[in-house]
Amino acid sequence: MSVQLHPHNQSNNTEDFTLSKAISMFLDIEFAVSSTQTTIWYRTRLSLFKKKISVNRVSQIKEHHLWYWYKNLQSRVVKDASDIEKISVHTQHGYIRAVRRFLKWSFRRGFIETDLTHDLKLPKLPKGGKKGISDYDVNTLLEATMPNTRDYAILRFIESTGCRRGGIANLRLSDLNLEEPGVLSRRATVLEKGSKERIVFLSNEAISALRSWLKERESNSNFVFISFNNRNSGLTPSGVSQILQRYKGKCGLEGKVSPHQWRHRHGRKLTEAGMPLGLVSQVLGHTNVAVTNDYYGMFAVGELQRALENYYIPPKNSRD
């Protein structure tokens, strides 16, 4: 691996940092305003990295340690991870992404003398696209939740907005605009991924479901979706997932039904309908349109064909 010298010399006290302490500090500082789920995601991967890297102090990490760890990770990747010891390329990608971010942070802090991430390349992910939950499962779950006005409103909100589960759990009464005139009533503000605010747009069905729920809702809580166990507290993100899993079991469904699967379906549907990827990216709140293209670019066939028909001019000859 090629390396880059740190611009500042390491101070003596940084050499005393154990790898465990450095990881804890990284999580506390880097994800202070992030969601709990994001912190857990990084902690899980870095804990496994710490077990495999076989050093006690962060300053002891060298290129050969990373090389052995990286090669071991590569040897475990298979297309069909049926063996418990094997992992998918998506899992490998996640491990490397977490370790790269930690090492870059450690380099900036002076815990390690060199940037060790130069040749720690992320694997290319397969271009399978993110299809998300099937239309059949969506219709089945919507029908199953209709007797429960809260759960039906939750599913209608997710279906029409592609909102992350944290946005559902954090939704407050002041985030809705149901009493505003015209199109303004179809806008809501969600807070996702810890502290990121964005505007989402509601379907008529979602608005109707929300109004029905709010008429029945009896609570002093500011949260739109409250817990039935404690009507003065809101749902947690995991609580939103548990609702979907419960109905999945009742309906005997086999596929994945998590909020993120609904989000993928939303992105796919918009792309297939011909919405430009740049707009799909904004609707979903992606930080970069490249993410949108990786997930849904393969579904933009209609958009590409329409563009080709507008711009392509075939050559003329005497027989035409």
Q: Work out the number of β strands.
A: 2
- Gap between N and C termini, in Å? 60 Å
Which stretches of 5+ consecutive residues score pLDDT under 50? 1-12, 80-84
Gross geometry? globular
Q: Count the helices. How many?
A: 13
The share of residues in extended strands comes to under 5%
Quaternary status: single chain
**H-E string:** HHHHHHHEEHHHHHH
Rg to the nearest angstrom?
24 Å
Helices and strands: which structural class? mainly alpha
Neighbour order of strands in the largest sheet: 1-2
Describe the sheet with the most strands: 2 strands, antiparallel
Q: Round the mean pLDDT to the nearest integer and report it.
A: 86
Q: Helix share of residues? A: 40-55%
What's a quick, concise take on this entry?
This protein is 51% helix and 4% strand. It has 320 residues and is mostly helical.
State the main characteristics.
single chain, 320 residues, mainly alpha, two-stranded antiparallel sheet, 13 helices, 2 strands
